[in-house]
Amino acid sequence: MGFLQLFYVASVPMIKVLLISVLGLLLALDRVDILGGTARTHVNHMVFYVFNPAMVGDNLAKTITWESLKSVWFMPFNVLATFLIGSALGWLLIKLLRPPKHLEGLILGCCSTGNLGNLPIVIIPAICREKGSPFGDPDVCYQYGMAYASLSMALGAVFVWSYVYNIMRNSAMKFQREGNSDGDFRKLKASAENPESLLDGRSETLNPSKDAMDDAYTMLLPNAEPVENTKVPISEKIKSYLVKILTSVNWKHMFAPSTTAAIVGFVIGLIPLLRNLLIGSDAPLRVVESSATMLGDAAIPTVTIILGANLLRGLKGTSSMWSTTVGIVAVRYIFLPILGALVVKGAIHVGLVNSDPLYHFVLLLQYSLPPAMNIGTIAQLFGGTESECSFIMLWTYVLASVAVTLWSTYFMWLVS
């Protein structure tokens, strides 16, 4: 299949995303105010608690069996690799740019986590249904593509709220401890342990501390407390480290509705009795599955509209963020996809990944996506970087229409 034909197939989904996102942005304008602040909150809640879980659970229940489970076991390791490689590149970017201390956690978060849920569930079905797709029968491609995208969404939620959440939390706590009074630090620490309390009040802008010279790498640790010089047995160190990790993880957010729905979908798909009751045209309780399908079908258009509406705030960003934004764009759209292609092709070469080209494409696509929208939510939880985050999100998503199209074209050529 020619490169130009693949480029056309890859560009159609991104054009659809761009058009519907622009519609969402227009609906969020003050003079229109259909998707104002309150409306966006309610729609976000509907997507988060209803549409996405229905779509994830339904698609996994229909496609996951013991046989198919053997073919997707590598995806969790691939998602973990995107986070670790992105974190390493983000750390190098911080060393190169030396941004204000309060932005280091935001930069690491944007570099380490991609939009593993919303964009794949838009891009993959559109590519499957486009004439000239290299992935064969559109219906089969759609069924398995949605299952891969749903699993990607669930895994992304787990890693964002267990890994990136703690990076950004520790960054905010470190900055407050080094650059502000002890009282402010205790207040932020209490808020970090109970992040919902921050949503009830107005976040204060944090100012960078000139004397804060700690290595940005320490934010990758689950706790930023100083290490004592006393000798401690290795077993005690390991035990203490694991306890810190378990106590610092935001379990409530990590088991988000989409993640819980993924677990339910796996249980239904893997247990023959439940599968026969719910899945299939002859299933006694097929009305339950068809209702979930109906709700899940609303996820893609709603997610895309609200994506554009959520980017509105970035139009009011500050020009001082240009160098940081360019660095994040380079990490997410140049270096990370190149390194990701090496990881995936290496895994294919040694036989860790099955021979399905669509599965290969999804694994590769996970390295070329813009930052996760949940980064904005985390930035609001800890305060001080909301405007900078909005600015970064706006331009990374604007450029995604070009970057993701080009990388999708190359990845389809690579796997076909």
Automatic annotation (TrEMBL):
Its organism's taxonomic lineage begins at: Eukaryota, Viridiplantae, Streptophyta, Embryophyta, Tracheophyta
What are the alphabetically sorted keywords of the record?
Auxin signaling pathway, Endoplasmic reticulum, Membrane, Transmembrane, Transmembrane helix, Transport
Which BP terms in the Gene Ontology apply to this protein? auxin-activated signaling pathway; endoplasmic reticulum to cytosol auxin transport
Q: Name one GO cellular component term.
A: endoplasmic reticulum membrane
Subcellular location(s): the record lists: Endoplasmic reticulum membrane
Organism of provenance: Acacia crassicarpa (northern wattle)
Describe its function.
Involved in cellular auxin homeostasis by regulating auxin metabolism. Regulates intracellular auxin accumulation at the endoplasmic reticulum and thus auxin availability for nuclear auxin signaling.
Q: What is this protein called?
A: Auxin efflux carrier family protein
Query: What membrane topology was assigned to this protein in its record?
Result: Multi-pass membrane protein
Q: Which family does it belong to?
A: Belongs to the auxin efflux carrier (TC 2.A.69.2) family.
